[in-house]
Amino acid sequence: KSYNVAVVGATGMVGQKMLEVLAELKFPIANLYPMASKRSAGKEILFNKKSYVVQELCDDAFDQDIDIALFSAGGDTSERFSPIAAAKGVIVIDNSSAFRMDPTVPLVVPEVNPEDLDWHKNIIANPNCSTIQAVVALKPLYDAFGIKRIVYSTYQAVSGSGVKGYADLERGIKGEENTFYPHPIAYNCLPHIDSFMDNGYTKEEIKMVNETQKILHDNSLRITATTVRVPVYYAHSESINVELKNEFNVDDVKTLYRKAPGIVLEDDPQNNIYPMAINAENKDEVFVGRIRRDFSLDNGVNLWVVADNIRKGAASNAVQIAFALIERKLI
Ligand code: 2RA
């Protein structure tokens, strides 16, 4: 069976990657409906060597016979158009943060909680990129040893901010002024992703806390996060400190990672082998290394986790959700 698929935000950084991944993973597409705002509508895009004209997103855009709509066009657009599409029987996979914490919307990483797809009500939320790679790495530990507490420290690529963040790094390297970030990002680190809340945390940090608890279905998880923008174009790197509930040994953890879905173990420090952004770029796996005991805790372990934030962190996870819908006979 083939499906009619819309990509909303088809000309943006993630939207373009969604099209690339749909073709690369050979998602069974009967008809493609690339959509974008008025500003980008009319552009021509190539998909599977065929040319398509980008349609303008409007209220009756989903009156066409569409089965699945992948959204990556910002929260406002999702808030307005996802319910319209869903009401017409379209299954929406939304990359924005608009519906992630809505209790009627499953927040899904296929390697972690595919069973949550079974209760979708036509809107499915793609988690934040920094959360996706984290929960893929945490799931094997959660199932084997239980988790009490998580400390996230992230080193996030500028592509997470889309073309504007990417351009600020290019400009900074050439000695030109930053026009997007509040300070220069070249040769610098900014402990400021998304906006600050009254409690001193940024929305990005709160997202990691709330989304991890929702995906693992465990509000007893004690989590804190510091999310930092670094001068890297693609792939987020994360230091993750985990307090487990039960005893473990490092070799058992490495054995778990060798067979865990979606994970590549890169952990041989004596030979300078550990995950790096330059090696994760344009791949769909989550790379895990620097696994070592945290001797300051009874059952503590430290991880270093790297993944491409535009692929596994957004586009590929969304397409993998679409494949999971087929596998689970939900479409
Ligand atoms: C960022 N995770 O990196 C956020 C949104 N993509 O900016």
UniProtKB/TrEMBL annotation:
Q: Has UniProt tagged this entry with the keyword Flavoprotein?
A: no
Keyword match Secreted:
no
- Record's keyword terms, sorted: Amino-acid biosynthesis, Diaminopimelate biosynthesis, Lysine biosynthesis, Methionine biosynthesis, NADP, Oxidoreductase, Threonine biosynthesis
Chain residues that bind NADP(+):
11-14, 39-40, 159-160, 309
Q: What does the record give under GO molecular function?
A: aspartate-semialdehyde dehydrogenase activity; NAD binding; NADP binding; protein dimerization activity
The segment(s) forming the Semialdehyde dehydrogenase NAD-binding domain are 4-120
- Give the reactions, separated by semicolons, that this protein catalyses: L-aspartate 4-semialdehyde + phosphate + NADP(+) = 4-phospho-L-aspartate + NADPH + H(+)
Q: Where does substrate bind?
A: 156, 229
> At which positions is phosphate bound?
100
Record pathway: Amino-acid biosynthesis; L-lysine biosynthesis via DAP pathway; (S)-tetrahydrodipicolinate from L-aspartate: step 2/4; Amino-acid biosynthesis; L-methionine biosynthesis via de novo pathway; L-homoserine from L-aspartate: step 2/3; Amino-acid biosynthesis; L-threonine biosynthesis; L-threonine from L-aspartate: step 2/5
Q: Which GO terms describe its biological process?
A: 'de novo' L-methionine biosynthetic process; diaminopimelate biosynthetic process; isoleucine biosynthetic process; lysine biosynthetic process via diaminopimelate; threonine biosynthetic process
Catalytic residues identified in the record: 129 (acyl-thioester intermediate), 236 (proton acceptor)
Name the Pfam families on file. Answer: Semialdhyde_dh (PF01118), Semialdhyde_dhC (PF02774)
Give the enzyme class: oxidoreductase
Which InterPro entries does this UniProt record tie to the protein? Asp_semialdehyde_DH (IPR012080), Asp_semialdehyde_DH_beta (IPR005986), NAD(P)-bd_dom_sf (IPR036291), Semialdehyde_DH_NAD-bd (IPR000534), Semialdhyde_DH_dimer_dom (IPR012280)
- EC number, UniProt record: 1.2.1.11
Gene3D superfamilies assigned to the protein according to its UniProt record, in alphabetical order: Dihydrodipicolinate Reductase, domain 2, NAD(P)-binding Rossmann-like Domain
Function description: Catalyzes the NADPH-dependent formation of L-aspartate-semialdehyde (L-ASA) by the reductive dephosphorylation of L-aspartyl-4-phosphate.
Q: Which NCBIfam families match?
A: asd_B, PRK14874.1
Subunit structure as annotated in this protein's UniProt entry = Homodimer.
Name the protein family: Belongs to the aspartate-semialdehyde dehydrogenase family.
Protein name as catalogued: Aspartate-semialdehyde dehydrogenase
Which organism does this sequence originate in?
Acetobacterium bakii
- List the lineage, top down: Bacteria, Bacillati, Bacillota, Clostridia, Eubacteriales
Underlying gene: asd
